[in-house]
Write a structure and sequence with these properties.
By secondary structure, the protein is of the alpha/beta class. The protein has two domains: 214 residues, 3-Layer(aba) Sandwich (Rossmann fold); 196 residues, Rossmann fold (3-Layer(aba) Sandwich), CATH 3.40.50. It binds nicotinamide-adenine-dinucleotide (NAD). The site of nicotinamide-adenine-dinucleotide has 26 residues, from helix 1 and helix 5.
């Protein structure tokens, strides 16, 4: 789709995880992109296969095409990447949590140190224009300024003169990452007027064909480092709050006859002040960002973050529901079928997925777990757990001989199962529909013991 009058830029990307891989593949459509990851085997795998090592729509196509057109490269070292007269260097390394929930900035700070050391070896005059370093990892306020001071310390160079640093949080969603990069809803840029100049021009040129200049101007917010850092947390915390909120309403429905949280969410969503998005009741949120970011914000907050703490507790309560509602899972003689492990459909990401939590507790309780997910590999699952875990080749295989089945991910193929599959294949047909994919009445009428989320008892 690129870009009539677009001037090719030289771009570097450090950190080839979910964000880095998709960003590299996307930006290599029109630019020359060089990537670097500390995990050399990961880089090698992508380079040799010309494919991503994560499941993401269109990712393989973009990587393959860019490599064939000599637009996408992999550097053996940071110095090799910086030597390519880069204009922009995007930093997309992970920012995980410590055990107490606070943010672990080890990777960001170590990248800052490495950039500083390597910059000190390069003659600034080799650059056509000063390098703009674009930090995209999700970080708490104050981190970008610390990032700058580490680079300055090790490079003996000055931000604003010898190089620029911008904070530019990423809002892509796994499962639609390339499309989200192609059609962003906002671009938030933190920095000084001087440091933002080059990156703003870059985004304006890059998106002008698809959005028009007015569209881009409306979409770009230029602000302070701290605002840009906090926007990302506020964004994720708000979405997590919506999910915990609808789960609270779902729990109220369960105590209220003749109610269904699906109908209530549909009605709420018609109000354009609310929107229908993120109003699906279920086992709660998972994935690499929501829990980590809500917890990091709670820790960072200098006051008692009452709303965020409740959001977090509600999510924990929700993922424990299949284990508190019945003891059909408890004991050495029990077998539990887990359908779906990825934290949502269209991804193979299992980070903080409710299924991972449930499998762990069930195995520790002594039961056997039969698990199926269409995208998560058996090797990944087997390497994660001790105990009697059997990874099966289909949902029906997982149900065989099970005493309890839990739907953890709403993959389309599970929606095609009918009550007879549960009755005929399971030892006892006890089902927890953690993603509300089935009609409870049909299942109960057919003789399945059905537990769900957000269904009030129906009198009529
Ligand atoms: P990830 O864990 O999937 O990938 C991080 C990559 O960085 C890994 O490949 C790791 O080997 C590499 N890395 C770590 N230290 C390095 C170093 N010193 N030098 C070079 N490479 C190094 O993480 P991710 O999901 O891609 O997320 C990256 C950042 O973006 C995080 O801050 C995250 O919160 C944020 N984010 C993630 C998403 C998402 O959907 N995954 C969306 C928006 C923002």
């Amino acid at each position: 789709m690129r870009r009539k009058y677009y001037q090719t830029r030289r771009i570097g990307i450090i950190g080839l995880g979910y964000v880095g891989q998709t960003l590299a593949a996307f930006l290599a459509d029109g630019n020359i992109v060089t990537c670097y990851d500390i995990d050399k085997s990961r880089m090698q795998k992508i380079k040799e296969s010309k494919k991503g090592d994560i499941k993401e729509k269109d990712l393989n196509l973009y990587i393959h095409r860019a490599m064939d057109k000599n637009k996408l490269y992999f550097a053996d070292s940071l110095l090799e990447m910086l030597d390519k007269s880069l204009e922009f260097l995007f930093v997309t390394v992970g920012t995980p949590s410590y055990d107490d929930g606070s943010i672990d900035l080890t990777a960001v700070n170590s990248v800052a140190m490495s950039i500083g050391i390597e910059l000190s070896k390069i003659k600034i005059s080799e650059y056509m224009c000063p390098l703009t370093i674009v930090l995209k990892s999700t970080v708490i306020p104050g981190t970008t300024r610390e990032f700058i001071s580490i680079i300055e310390k090790y490079s003996k160079r000055k931000e604003g003169k010898d190089f620029y640093v911008v904070y530019n949080p990423e809002f892509l969603r796994e499962g639609s990452a390339i499309n989200d990069l192609e059609y962003p809803q906002k671009i938030v840029l933190g920095g000084s007027r001087k440091s933002l100049k080059e990156i703003k021009e870059f985004y304006e040129e890059y998106y002008v064909d698809s959005m028009g200049i007015d569209g881009i101007e409306e979409m770009i917010i230029s602000t302070t480092y701290e605002n840009a850092e906090l926007v990302k947390y506020a964004n994720n915390a708000f979405l997590a709050t919506k999910i915990s909120f609808i789960n609270e309403i779902a729990n109220i429905c369960e105590k209220t006859p003749n109610t269904d949280v699906g109908v209530i969410a549909e009605a709420l969503g018609l109000d354009d002040r609310i929107s229908p998005k993120f109003l699906r009741a279920g086992l709660g949120y998972g994935g690499s960002c929501f829990s980590k970011d809500v917890e990091a914000l709670i820790k960072y907050s200098k006051e008692d973050a009452l709303v965020l703490k409740s959001v977090f507790r509600k999510n924990k309560y929700q993922r424990e529901k299949p284990l508190t509602i019945t003891d059909a899972w408890l004991g050495k003689d029990k077998t539990v079928a887990i359908l779906g492990v990825a934290f949502k459909p269209e991804t193979d990401d299992i980070r903080d997925a409710p299924a991972i939590y449930l499998i762990d507790v069930i195995l520790k309780g002594g039961a056997t777990v039969r698990v199926y997910d269409p995208e998560v590999s058996a090797e990944v699952l087997i390497s994660k757990f001790d105990g009697n875990l059997i990874v099966t080749a289909s949902a029906k295989h997982a149900l065989k001989g099970a005493d309890y089945a839990i739907i953890c991910t709403e993959w389309d193929e599970f929606k095609k199962l009918d009550p007879n599959d549960f009755k005929l294949l399971m030892n006892k047909p006890v089902l927890f529909d953690g993603r509300r994919i089935f009609d409870p009445k049909t299942f109960i009428k057919a003789g399945v013991t059905y537990y769900g989320i957000g269904h009030g008892k129906h009198d009529a």
